Amino acid sequence: MSEPIAGKNSLEFRGGPLVSVVPLATFLVFTVVLVLKGSAVVEGMIVAAMLGIALGMLLVRNVADYSERIFSLMANRIATVAVVCWLWAGAFSGILAQSGLVEAIVWVGWKLHLTGSAFTLGVFVSACLFAVSVGTGLGTVVGFTSVMYPAGIVLGADPAALMGAILSGAAFGDNLAPVSDTTIVSAATQETDVGGVVRSRLKYSLSAALISAVLFAFLGGGKSALPAGEANHLLEATANPAALPMLIPALLVFIAAISGFHFLAALNLGIAAALIVGPLTGIFPLERVFRFTAEGSVAGSALDGALAMLPISILTLLLVTANGLMEAGGFLELLLGWLHRTWARTVRGTELAIVGLISLANLFVPVNTIAMVTVGPLANRLRKTQGIHPYRVANLLDTISCSFPFLLPYAAVIVAAEAIQKEVAGRYAFVQVLTWGQEAPYVFYGIVMFPLMLVAVMTGWGRKRG
């Protein structure tokens, strides 16, 4: 966000600086209503953000200045960087997600003869691999619940632990993938590079993943719901190794991103590799990626992936604007002053304040990316006053947002998991539809990550370079 003008506020609100919080507060209140109504979708949040900005116009003394400030804030570099990265990442993940990579990973587990807790552990590792490849926790939950959940029940995995493994793998990928929306926005809000953030985050993500893997290995077993013959029949119908070569483009993007390549260059490399590997190996024709339709339109997996990022991009622009209006009205200066007098007097205290702010935002907003967009600019200003490395704060924002938020009953991934379980149960009588209380205790990655980051803050682990 732009720096505040010294000595005065850029916008004057009737009632003083506290009133400048109305645009963002309206969004948060409206979002809570959406959650309570079971309609916590990004499209609804866009309307909430628009409503908040419109209400702010009724409370400002100079409407013309307020209106012009909205336009200038929409051009904020933080939001622009995130939007551009999301479009490219969406196109790349769309290609991979529609290539059949989930079915290929199922085939690997089947051929390795994994059963019981071994299958649950295998699902966790596979979900981690897939989520890091495509960069979407929600997409991982949808794909793996559709295929791995019924297959795992057949092979003797505990249903609750199995869903915990899928959700945990989704959280890991959302947390670490260079193409993940949370990774992109955590770096963008701290004005730093994606590759460096991913490199510095490895120690946290891998530590939480290792602890989770041990727990799944011990607690993931159950009893097969079907005889072995029926189990094999189900797996034969879903497992297909054809798309395994699509791991090559995903690996190229990850290596390029953490090796210092510009993020857009790494994504273009991955897209180019996918467009070579896919048609060359017969996984998909180029027409599946992009084609002209008979109706005079265009379609394809790359287009679908990019367009899927438009709602979150629009909401990001609106929320960055609401934050900017709050700063221009003077509220952020009041909040920063209070934090500096209380929590943020030391480096550790500042980090704890950031953890508290992002935790509260995630409790209010069911989409973790939006929570980071809301808190990120404030966290960026806080870290600068204490000279905290941008990687460190990007990691605090992202790891907290990929910890307990994956356990919340109104989180997008939990809602999606329940919907897919019901759909699968309609096809297979043996599939159990779990309650939130049954599966939440097994989301080990989310359970482990939050206290792990509190330890990192209290001890200073990783503080020097992230």
UniProtKB/TrEMBL annotation:
Entry annotated with the keyword NADP: no
Gene Ontology annotations for the cellular component aspect, listed alphabetically: plasma membrane
Principal subcellular localisation of the protein: membrane
Cellular location(s): Cell membrane
Coiled-coil region list: none
Domain Na+/H+ antiporter NhaC-like C-terminal span(s) in chain numbering: 4-220
Membrane topology: Multi-pass membrane protein
UniProt key word Iron: no
Sequence similarity: Belongs to the NhaC Na(+)/H(+) (TC 2.A.35) antiporter family.
Listed name of the protein: Na+/H+ antiporter NhaC-like C-terminal domain-containing protein
Native species: Candidatus Glassbacteria bacterium RIFCSPLOWO2_12_FULL_58_11
